[in-house]
Amino acid sequence: DSTDLSESKPTLTVEDSQPGKLTIGFNKSISHGVNLYTRRGTETAFSFLARDTESPYVDNRPPLVAGALEHREYQAVYVLNDEEIGQRSDTVSGVFKP
Fold this sequence. Notes:
By secondary structure, the chain is mainly beta. Helix content is 0%, strand content 46%. Strands 3, 4, 6, 7 and 8 form a five-stranded antiparallel β-sheet that branches. Strands 1-2-5 form a three-stranded antiparallel β-sheet, with no helix packed on it.
């Protein structure tokens, strides 16, 4: 495969149809996985959420305000040999419903 990950970025999807979780789908191309980053509620910066090697990732963290609907955003970057490579994905979002 001649894919150049240094210029590539993952594609993300979010499914928010089930209470208590958001399902984040991603493609990993020829990488070993992705690092996922999130921003939720009133947070102003993205922070590391998880490294995942198989899609999808399920985000079932409780909301920052107990019982409240919460807007969450996600980005990802490819991981190859334990190092991030390429560009961050476009931002995708969903609404967490407790």
